[in-house]
Every structure is written in structure tokens, then in C-alpha cells.
Amino acid sequence: MLTKRQNLLETIKGGNPDRLVNQYEAFVCTDAIYGMIMGDPITAQGGFPMPGGEPVKNAWGITFAWPAGTPGAFPLHDKEHKVLQDITKWRDVVKAPKTDLPAEAWAPFLPAVEAIDRNEVFATVFVAPGVFEQCHHLMGMEDCLMGFYEEPEEMHALIDYIVDYELRYAAELIKYYKPDCLFHHDDWGSSLNSFMAPDMFAEFIVPAYKKIYGFYKANGVELVVHHSDSYAANLVPHMIEMGIDIWQGCISNNNVPELIKQYGGQISFMGDIDNSLIDDENWTQESVGAEVRKAVARCGNHYYIPCITQGGPGSVYPGVYEAITTEIDLINAGK
């Protein structure tokens, strides 16, 4: 029987997997909230809210809230909390966290990483937010999108600043953790379309990720998994150009079977089990299982990993994620 890691590699390479990959199983490697390598002294310079808890300011000075019953945290963008209120003044107010911390600052985080069985699973480091998300976290979605049109030079400069930070951060993660997989967030669309046209995406976002993902791969990271639980089918060629191996979060509106047919072998797809269809207070094993079986039937077992579309193992309503896991286990057992 293949290990979880081996089975995933067979799946995304079009080889001979001996079962369906079961959601995040090949990336869960610690006991952190999303089961990946998540703690480090750089991000610990700020806080992050827990579900249903009080708003918290992170290391960039952005205040986040995570209301109970919602999939994740999001910044507060009222006048009191918005960090960047004028894109032309970003140099005055946007300050990246320090990354040149001493080795002793990393020491408390190392035992969890050293305990990972890298034959069984990937040592997967979780990085969020992404470049686009960092921009709109600082200034709000409306100001961010208008900035691409009204102040493109300033947006390019801000993105360069964010990328420089990401590369310094990546260098420290690689130095101390030596991850072999990167799970990187950046939501690029709504459920209906991407937030920007492919040409604009190619101008502003693609060069940033070619640098970031290229750096990780040049320094021992075998797999890049990118999360965007949205419509982004029109951006898949750019994902391939960036070096993404697996797009996690591909909702069913993307027509995932067609994407597999068109791009399988260049990139793989992890999702097609939409939170919006199954993750509610009335869920049952039967209702969840039906959606899982539909997804598996239409997507197959090459270049596809059946998975909830949210960006980490779990669900809004307790038990939904586990119900998906149970159903995939049943399918793998021939039941």
C-alpha cells in the first residue's frame, strides 16, 4: 500500500494510485488548527483571531475578526481600522514585519516539524495571505481593485514590497523547517468570475508568484499547492506558468472535469465538493455523501483530489469535513 505522500504523487503524475487521495491527508503533518506547519516567530509578532473571538491585530497592523459560524477571518475596513487609505501614501504606512530574528526565536517551533514522518506525508508549510489578499487586506477590496486602474505604478510598487517580504519570509521558513510542500492562500475570484481579467492578472500577479514559487522550488520544495476557492478557470494557464502543481479550492462552477481533460498533466485539481452545497446546519452523511460521489464520478482519480473547497481541513458546521472523509473511505473500500 502506498503512503499518503506516494499516493498523492501517483495521482498528480497520472501514474498508478491505489486509492483516491482523501482530502488533505497528505498535507496534515502537525496538530495545528489546519494540520500543517503554521507557527513561526515572524507571524507571531502579531496576533490572529480564533473563531468567535475578539478582533486581533496582525504583524502588518491589520485588524482581523472571525465571527462564529463563518469560514475564516477577514479584516475590518472601517475608517478606524483600515491601514492604507490612500495608495499613493503606502510607503508611509505599510510596514512589513521583521524577518531577521535570531535562531533561538525559532527553537520552540522546531520539535513539531522534526516529528513529521516525511515518508508518510509532506512537510507542508501553510502561508497566508497571498499577494492579492495582502493588498486588499491593507486597503479594502474596492480601493484595491480601483488602484489597479487608477494608480497602476503604485500598485506595482506595493506588490514588489510585499513580494520582497514574502521572499525574506520564505528564506527563513526554508532555513529552519526545510518544507517539501507549500500550501499558499490567495483567493482570486468570486463564485462567478475572477476578480480581474486574465491580462491584468498577468501584468500584476503572475510575475509576483513566478518569483515566490520559483524561490520555493529552487530551495527544495517539491510541491506548490495554491488555494483559491473561487471561479478561476480563466486563470489556469497562468497558474501553470507560476509553477502551481495543485489548485486547491476549485469550485464546481469551474467545470473541473473539463479542466482535468484540458490541463491534466500540467496541473492537478483539488476540490469540486463545494462548501456552499453541503456545509450547512442541515447536513447529513447521506446528503454529503451524494455530492462526494458525484464529484468522484465526474472527475476520476487522475489529476484530481476530492476535497472540500475551503482552504484547510475542516468545515463551518462541525462534522461536514469528517463526513466527506468517511465517504471517500467508503469509496476506496469499494462500498
Average pLDDT: 97
Radius of gyration: 19 Å
> What's the CATH class label?
Alpha Beta
Number of β-strand runs: 9
Side by side, the strands of the main sheet go: 4-5-6-7-8-9
Helical region count?
14
Low-confidence stretches: none
How far apart the termini lie comes to 19 Å
The CATH level-2 architecture is identified as: Alpha-Beta Barrel
Which structural class do the helices and strands define? alpha/beta
Query: Tell me about the biggest sheet?
Result: 6 strands, parallel
Share of helix among residues? Answer: 40-55%
Number of domains: 1
Overall 3D form: globular
Spell out the helices and strands N to C: HEEEHHHEHHHEHHEHEHEHHEH
Task: Report on the architecture of this protein.
The protein has 14 helices and nine strands. The chain has 335 residues and is α/β, with parallel strands linked by helices. It has a single domain, classed as TIM Barrel (Alpha-Beta Barrel), CATH 3.20.20. The model has no long low-confidence stretch (mean pLDDT 97).
Concise structural overview:
The chain is of the alpha/beta class and 335 residues long. The protein has helices at residues 4-12, 90-93, 103-106, 110-114, 131-139, 141-150, 152-177, 198-204, 206-218, 236-242, 256-263, 275-278, 285-299, 320-332, and strands at residues 56-57, 63-65, 74-75, 124-127, 181-185, 223-227, 246-250, 268-273, 304-308.
